[in-house]
Structure formats: structure tokens, C-alpha cells
């Protein structure tokens, strides 16, 4: 008989809240250009944003029974992360399940399969990031693992890792690296603010970015 786990360590909520202040791109760059899920996984609406501990689940293609089990056992603030084989032609999640998630106070959904009822999802405001939009229905047949590491969007996501999604995409931060990711993200924000101030003060991109020596070493000649 299949046995699934529902217990795992979650990160410090205060650190999760701090990470949510930074964009997915900033976090990705700050942790050495790591953690970005495939660019094919996008929000149903650009205004959607999420940041929370991953509650992972693996589903068979065109089958959402384990997604429903995950929703039942996830805790408030958790983000359901579904690995379903990168199957685009299935609408495995819609407004009915989204309302179940809202009622439980969940933080969002990320899936490498399709969703539907997108107008209703936008009106509800529950953050949904998916591979596709598809009206095709699913079955409820295949049980599988939950709260175990999954592969999604080219990245391994473990239960309790933090996922941050916004208009540009999704990035994952390892639970043990969360504090460092916050620190480095703030450093990057501060550095970029300095670049912008320098541009507005009249300095060139080449000057601010220190590109002159790099371009010279590469033999680039510019006639002015």
C-alpha cells in the first residue's frame, strides 16, 4: 500500500517574508544565477506574486488526484509545487480547486502542466504559475509521492525550499540558503540603485559597468 509523507521542516516565516521583497530575477542573480525554473512556467496573470515554502507533489500526466491530496494536507502559506511530466495538454487545476486553496490560506500553485478557468483565477487573485492553459479534463487514478523532492522546470525542488514567483518567472531557494539569499539580494538591490544614480548623474553604461578594459581586451574598436 502506498505511503506518503506530509511532515517536513519549513523555513523561518520572517525570512520568507523578507525574501518576498525581492524579484525573482534579483534572487536568481544574487545566488549565482541559480534556481530559475524554466521560462515556460509563467503566471496566469502578470500581477500574480507568491513566496512561500514548497509543498511538493508528483502527479501522473492528465491526473490530478495527488494534487487534491496535497491541497488537503498543505498548511497555510505553503505553495503547492506540482511535477506532472511537463504535460501541456491538461487542465489539472481551475477555479474550484483554487477556492479550496484560498479557504485553507495557501500561498499559491506552481505546476509544469496546464490549468484552466483563467478568468476566474484572475478574479479570485490566487497566484497560479503553469506551463500552459488547457481546457482538457483530467482523471483521478494514479497515486504517487508527496512532500518529496520533485523535478520541475529543470530544477529540483525539495519540500520546505522557498519558491518565489512574479511576472518574470519562478526561482527556488534552498531552505538552508535562505538567509544568505536575502542578504545577497539586498546587496544586489543596493548596487543596482548605485548604478541608476550614476546613470542619472551623467555617467555612461561602459563607465559604470567597468567595461572599457573588457572591451579593449576583446579587441573591440569604436569609431567616434
TrEMBL record:
InterPro entries assigned: RraA/RraA-like, RraA/RraA-like_sf
EC number(s) given by UniProt: 4.1.1.112, 4.1.3.17
The organism's place on the tree of life at top rank: Bacteria
CDD domains the UniProt entry points to: RraA_family (cd16841)
Reaction catalyzed: oxaloacetate + H(+) = pyruvate + CO2; 4-hydroxy-4-methyl-2-oxoglutarate = 2 pyruvate
Entry similarity comment: Belongs to the class II aldolase/RraA-like family.
Alphabetized PANTHER family for the sequence: 4-HYDROXY-4-METHYL-2-OXOGLUTARATE ALDOLASE 3-RELATED (PTHR33254), BLR3842 PROTEIN (PTHR33254:SF16)
Complexes and interactors: Homotrimer.
Cited function: Catalyzes the aldol cleavage of 4-hydroxy-4-methyl-2-oxoglutarate (HMG) into 2 molecules of pyruvate. Also contains a secondary oxaloacetate (OAA) decarboxylase activity due to the common pyruvate enolate transition state formed following C-C bond cleavage in the retro-aldol and decarboxylation reactions.
Stated name of the protein: Putative 4-hydroxy-4-methyl-2-oxoglutarate aldolase
Originating species: Actinoallomurus vinaceus
